[in-house]
User: Fold this.
Amino acid sequence: MKIYREIANEIISARENKKIQIEEVATILNISRSLLEDIESGNFKKIKENVYELGHLRTYINWLKINPQPIMDLLKNTNNSNSTKSISFSIPFLNINKNYVIGISLALLILLFFSWYKFYLVDANIKNIAENNFIEYEDVSNKNKIFINNNSAENKEKYNSDLVAIKAITSSWIQIERLDGSIYTSKILKKDEQIELLNKKNLFLVTNNAGGLVISINGLELEKLGNIGDTQRNISLNPKDLIKKNNN
Assistant:
């Protein structure tokens, strides 16, 4: 596509303005040279079908100081249009009354709501009462399961919230991105400086100094992401994903 070639030319120009060769970019960003060559040749058809490679593309574009949003939106819209074409169909021989369809749809929605209420909310509440208002919580600091009194206001604040904190033990560059590729924040986190994310979901961390950061959930520190100087990208900051990563 012509637009892909234009994007590739813009990326090449930005790199050449930095007076840096593609081999050096591969070393700095820890991205394979072959993938960088695909990007600069405009081979986005292959890249847009691979979430991992899309993350590398976003990292490269951000590093070149190019706004990633138009490019990511273009690839997303291309995927959606192809998907729509592949599944669209019509049934011209069916003649169904519109009011009848709306009535059936509303009835199904009501049925689904009451089923969810009965089998999820009510049963969960009964189970909680039966367990004497104690909830199970996994303490990630020692990987043991403990039981917390759910009636305690202090424990509710400590264990039931989703406070993710990123603290620098040495100065480290970090970038936090949203799921759509837009940047939530990008900065040098100085030693002992901390960023707190309360009840934030669908955020991803990129850093060039994984060993210089400590991540905690509700004050409980997780294991380090890597060693000093390690590059890490696309790290989900969802508390459940962080706990799962910590336990592996």
Q: What stands out?
A: The domain at 2-85 is CATH 1.10.260.40 (434 Repressor (Amino-terminal Domain)). The chain has nine helices and ten strands. The mean pLDDT is 76. The CA atoms of residues 170 and 191 lie 5 Å apart.
